[in-house]
């Protein structure tokens, strides 16, 4: 399918690996030029060069932390005029309610709620002026089905979801859509870290933790960054203009809900 977005520009944050990279690759395959961001310069440059070689699109890179105002300002300068924004950030650490204090919540909010809001606030006016834009926020299945060990993520990402619910309907009349993608368990570094933490907590092996996870996924496999990127690219396409303010699960059927 021709997504109809060749020649447009996209900003994809935290895109050197994992789900962010999957989104960047899928957009590049559709002919979209990229501004890519990550905190680690070496991995970012390696991924950017691989995308340039594979897809022949222009790729600019900005190393920095989107929660730091100065870094975010540099990123926004590089991304001025983009028509597509994909926000992504690593999740906060697991634990239980008694582990976390105010500063832990502030860090989680900065990364998983306030930074995406700041990026949208900066870039939405240009999209509105152009009469077209696409925003996709990578959140988590936890906004629909909270995960006990990820209370920091549950709180911050649910806050972002509430912001999007209202804002998406305010900008939709201008040809701009905002939607959220909710990943379940994908084969990424984040899942590997969570598996290692769970294995240590329970005194078992990583392999045993992974096997238990798979039994709860009807698709009987973990998601891939390619799965995720394909849906992201579709939501950014010309065909997705009637999808507004939605929270779309990509979890292999693991969340047992009717609606």
Residue fraction in strands: 5-15%
Question: Any idea what the shape is?
Answer: globular
What's the pLDDT, averaged over the residues?
95
Query: How would you classify the helix and strand content by structural class?
Result: alpha/beta
Biggest β-sheet description: 7 strands, parallel
Share of residues in helices:
40-55%
Task: Tell me the radius of gyration.
Answer: 18 Å
Q: Low-confidence stretches at least 5 residues in length (pLDDT < 50)?
A: none
SS summary, helix count? 8
CA distance, first residue to last residue: 28 Å
Oligomeric description of these chains: single chain
List the strand order in the largest sheet. Answer: 3-2-1-4-5-6-7
Order of helices and strands: EHEHEHEHEHEHHHE
Tell how many strands the DSSP assignment holds. Answer: 7
Question: Helices and strands in order, then pairings?
Answer:
Layout: E1 9-12, H1 18-29, E2 33-38, H2 41-55, E3 59-63, H3 69-78, E4 84-87, H4 102-130, E5 133-138, H5 151-171, E6 176-183, H6 189-202, H7 206-215, H8 225-235, E7 247-250
Parallel strand pairs: 1-2, 1-4, 2-3, 4-5, 5-6, 6-7
State the gist of this model.
With 259 residues, the chain is α/β, with parallel strands linked by helices. It contains 8 helices and 7 strands.
What does this protein look like?
This protein has 259 residues and is of the alpha/beta class. 47% of the residues lie in helices and 14% in strands. Strands 3-2-1-4-5-6-7 form a 7-stranded parallel sheet, sandwiched between helices. The longest helix is centred in the middle third of the chain and has 29 residues, at 102-130. The chain is globular and about 55 Å long. The model has no long low-confidence stretch (mean pLDDT 95).
């Amino acid at each position: 399918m021709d997504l109809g977005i060749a020649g447009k520009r996209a900003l994809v944050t935290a895109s050197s690996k994992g789900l962010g990279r999957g989104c960047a690759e899928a957009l590049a395959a559709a002919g979209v030029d990229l501004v890519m961001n990550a905190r680690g310069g070496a991995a970012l440059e390696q991924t950017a060069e691989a995308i340039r070689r594979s897809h022949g699109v222009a790729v600019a890179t900005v190393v920095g932390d989107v929660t730091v105002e100065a870094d975010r300002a540099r990123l926004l300068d590089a991304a001025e005029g983009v028509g597509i924004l994909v926000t992504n950030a690593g999740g906060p650490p697991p634990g239980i309610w008694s582990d976390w204090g105010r500063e832990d919540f502030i860090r989680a909010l900065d990364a998983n709620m306030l930074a995406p809001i700041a990026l949208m606030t900066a870039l939405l006016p240009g999209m509105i002026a152009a009469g077209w834009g696409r925003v996709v926020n990578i959140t988590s299945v936890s906004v629909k089905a909270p995960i006990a060990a990820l209370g920091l993520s549950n709180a911050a990402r649910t806050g972002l979801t509430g912001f999007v619910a209202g804002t998406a309907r305010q900008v939709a009349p201008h040809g701009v859509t905002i939607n959220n993608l909710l990943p379940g368990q994908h084969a990424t570094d984040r899942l590997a870290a969570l598996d290692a933490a769970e294995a240590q907590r329970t005194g078992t092996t990583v392999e045993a933790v992974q096997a238990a996870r798979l039994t709860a996924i009807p698709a009987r496999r973990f998601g891939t960054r390619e799965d995720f990127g394909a849906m992201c690219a579709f939501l950014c396409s010309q065909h997705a203009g009637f999808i507004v303010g939605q929270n779309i699960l990509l979890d292999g059927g693991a969340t047992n809900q009717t609606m």
